[in-house]
Amino acid sequence: MLGPVILAASRSDRMRRLVSAAPVTKPVVDRFIPGETVDQIVPIIRELTDQGLELTMDVVGEDITTPAQAEAARDAYLELIDRLKPLELGTRAEMSVKLSMFGQALEGGHELALANVRPVVEAAAEIGTTVTLDAEDHTTLDSMFAIHEELRKDFPQTGCVIQAYLFRTEADARRLADSGSRVRLVKGAYKEPAEVAYQQRHEIDKAYVRILRTLMEGEGYPMIGSHDPRLISIGQELARTAGRKLDEYEFQMLYGIRSDEHLRLAAEGHRMRVYTAYGTDWYGYFMRRLAEKPANLRFFARSMVSKG
User: Fold this and answer.
1) From CA 132, how far away is CA 148, in angstroms rounded?
2) 8, 153, 158, 223: which sits with the fewest CB atoms below 10 Å from its CB?
3) pTM metric for this prediction
């Protein structure tokens, strides 16, 4: 069970320094994070959308310790939106945001995060697109859902993420499906205790299917966040059973993972959205990608051996 170990390392300053200093790290990180600046990422956006893919853009970074840093995160997203405007992509390029970047963990963090994220949601709406609130660890979710509900009063297209491994998620999914929300369902990528989350992969997979059925049968817009071929196939079948057309749900996968599958689904007429992260504070995001899938860790380990 290397996943929990890697997730613990994602919060270690010592491991951050060690991994960041390794000569092989940057080429491997580039597989998952194709740029550090807006100038670097705009050509990637053009390339992917020219291939018939859609995107959700994430400016990486989570460890915010001051209100000024939270405002800088807000401004980074506003800069991205400004650069997206002339591309006229509409909802083909949306944003994903982590409320921790907007100050959620600081004193008065709920109000601070809402105040910082609202201008991003407003600016996204002005260029014809939207924002999805990413889920983080379970202690942050009540605040995230409350902010989601508040934003939807003026911007009903605002989405949110739910995580199949949490016990609470089936109830959350029923509520969100009834309200007509845009919902991305993922397995979950944070180290959570057994008191709140399933620990075994087969239990998480079964919960994922139950929750996805709820979303497909509900009034909202399901977003299937998975690279698992079996869950992708099940998602297609659940959509057919629920009578959903191809534009009434979508698949989402990470940049750099199963890229051929991205193109295959898009070629079949599915909406296929690529979660594309960029920025300089990549360490936590990168370590969670290693923890999620053993193949990613093996890829990194082989690179360390061959290049170290």
Assistant:
1) 9
2) 153
3) 0.87
